[in-house]
Amino acid sequence: MAEKTLFQKIMDGELDGDIVYEDEQCVVLRDINPQAPTHVLVVPRKPIPSLNDLTEEDEALVGHLFVVAKKIAAAEGLDGGYRTVFNCGPDANQTVPHIHLHVLGGRRMGWPPG
């Protein structure tokens, strides 16, 4: 059995996390190293290591993550806009091998990112 990820440990109550929302399919946590005034992570309960590991059966789950992101952005008052980001692999700075959708807002975003 693979070692639990940081996110799995938080979802299992083994580690503390600032959970702002949860349902049967995902949890939303505040990022511990925020890059914007609002920076939350939408994390599926299913442990999928990276976007490259997604399968067709994950389509509805990934769509659900975006619907939850929209709800959280509204709840956080991000009326002026927000950014959603998936990082995939070390070159994209994915640091936890469990997909998670970043939701960032509360400040003007630059382009291009990175």
Automatic annotation (TrEMBL):
Q: Name one GO molecular function term.
A: catalytic activity
Task: Please state the span of the N-terminal signal peptide per the UniProt entry.
Answer: none
What's the protein here called? Histidine triad nucleotide-binding protein
Q: Where is this motif: Histidine triad motif?
A: 98-102
Q: Which Pfam families match?
A: HIT
The record's listing under SUPFAM superfamilies reads:
HIT-like
Q: Name the InterPro entries on file.
A: Histidine_triad_CS (IPR019808), Histidine_triad_HIT (IPR001310), HIT-like (IPR011146), HIT-like_sf (IPR036265)
Q: Where is the HIT domain?
A: 6-114
Origin: domain of life? Bacteria
Active site residues of this protein:
H100
